[in-house]
Design brief:
The protein is of the alpha/beta class. It folds into 2 domains: about 80 residues, no CATH class; about 190 residues, no CATH class. The protein has 11 helices and 9 strands. The strands form 2 sheets. The protein has a 7-stranded mixed beta sheet with strand order 1-9-8-2-5-3-4, sandwiched between helices. α3 crosses α5 and α4 packs across α5. The longest helix has 26 residues. It is globular, with a radius of gyration of 19 Å.
């Protein structure tokens, strides 16, 4: 892992006491009150002390081509939206629901109806965790690969909610033992969900052109899919308003008769193209807070 990646570890800020207090509070107050509090009192402080402001600004300035003032403003909005996503996650742990629209749900329904397993590729944009509460099926177990270093209270609440929705978490482990669980799940005809925009564990990567510059993408998700010739969906869950989310489901097509290297190239290119499409639709919901492009 590079020094830039170490700046953002991907776990939720705070300790168990803070998390439990937040969950209790959200049982009684409107999430929008916390949105306002965060945007006025917390985010300005974070922008001063956290290195994420630099990487977010570089993303808006260099990759999206915004002017200096617009890039600075969007950096603030980006952090406010990320705070809202974190608040929304804890609101769900407190029992609250959000309105969710699902675009092209028939692609998911068709694949869960077939006996073979398939894969879902996600990214650190929007609020993908909501997919675990919305894309439900009693026909297949939904296995979600998650960061093993997440805080205990977050993992406990996720597990409680996911279990009710036929979702099982597979933590990413340094010894790579999670690969055996992924293989078993796919052999059983289940669904495996993996993020495909951040490198964890194995440092093998694919270099792709993304937003007019080269960037590394993890080798693993595309290798697993092409090894078995699996159908693959890109699923991105984006915040569409203060109280609503929209799930975008897109098939990632690739020629399964080609060589393995060609399949991986086609599949990864399809994923990156869809990620770029989502970013252009929701530019302020990019939450990779490290220097993604080299």
């Amino acid at each position: 892992m590079t020094e830039e990646q170490k700046e953002w570890q991907g776990n939720t800020y705070g300790n168990s006491g803070m998390h439990n207090s937040l969950i209790t509070m959200l049982r009684y107050i409107d999430t929008r009150l916390l949105y306002l509090f965060a945007s006025v009192f917390i985010i300005p402080v974070c922008l001063i002390i956290q290195p994420s402001r630099k990487t977010a600004y570089h993303y808006f300035r260099n990759r999206l081509g915004y002017g200096r003032i617009k890039a600075a403003w969007k950096t603030y909005i980006n952090h406010c939206l990320f705070a809202q996503v974190v608040i929304d996650r804890f609101a769900m742990y407190a029992g609250k629901k959000f309105a969710v629209e699902i675009e092209d749900f028939e692609y998911f329904q068709r694949l869960v109806s077939q006996p073979e397993g398939f894969m879902i590729l996600s990214a650190h944009i929007g609020n993908y965790e909501i997919a675990g509460y919305s894309l439900q099926s009693d026909k297949k177990i939904f296995n979600a690969l998650v960061f093993a270093g997440e805080k205990e209270i977050v993992m406990l609440n996720r597990n409680k909610l996911f279990t009710d929705n036929n979702v099982r978490m597979i933590p990413v482990r340094q010894d790579m033992s999670h690969l055996f669980e992924i293989n078993t799940a796919l052999s059983n005809g289940e669904v495996v969900s993996m993020p495909a925009d951040r490198i964890h564990g194995s440092q093998k990567s694919l270099t792709k052109n993304f937003l007019a510059a080269t960037a590394p993408f993890p080798h693993g998700p595309f290798s697993v899919a092409t090894m078995r010739g699996l159908d693959v969906l890109a699923v991105n869950v984006m915040k569409s308003s203060l109280t609503k989310y929209r799930i975008h489901i897109t098939p990632l097509n690739y020629d399964k008769t080609q060589s393995r290297a060609k399949q991986m190239d086609e599949l990864s290119s399809a994923y990156v193209a869809e990620l770029e499409r989502m970013i252009k639709m929701y530019p302020a919901q990019w939450y990779n807070f490290y220097e993604f492009w080299k």
